[in-house]
Amino acid sequence: MDKHFKFGLKTMCAWTLFLALIYGSFAIITKASLSGLLDTETGGFISLAFFIAWALIWFAIGQHYSKDYAKKKEAWKQMYPAVNDEEVDKAFRADYFSRLAKVF
C-alpha cells in the first residue's frame, strides 16, 4: 500500500467520522432514530449506495491531493537543490497550504 492510497483511506475515514458525528448530534438533539437515514422504498439500498459513493469520492479526493502534494514538493526540491531539505519542506508547506486556503 503506497502513501497516497493510505492518505485516501484516511480522508475517507475522516469524512465518515464527520458524517457520524453530525448525524449522531442531530439524532441526540431531535431524538431521531437510525431509520430516518434509510429510504423505505428500497429498504435502504439507495441510502447505502449514496453513502458509499460519497465515501469513494472522498477517497479519490484524498488520494489526488496526496499525489499533487508529492509532485509539487519534489518540484520545489529540484528548484532549490542547494538549500537544506528541512528549510525547503518548511517553505513549501507554507506556500502550498496558503495557496490551498486561497482556493477555499
Report on the architecture of this protein.
- With 104 residues, this protein is mainly α.
- The chain has one domain (3-103).
- Helices cover 79% and strands 0% of the residues.
- Helix 1 crosses helix 2 (45-79).
- The model has no long low-confidence stretch (mean pLDDT 87).
What string, H for helix and E for strand, traces the elements in order? HHH
Number of domains: 1
Give helix % range: over 70%
Mean pLDDT over the full residue set: 87
Contiguous low-pLDDT stretches (5 residues minimum) are none
Count of individual beta strands: 0
Oligomer status: single chain
- What's the alpha carbon Rg, rounded to whole Å? 20 Å
Brief synopsis:
Helix 1 crosses helix 2 and helix 2 packs across helix 3. The protein has one domain (3-103).
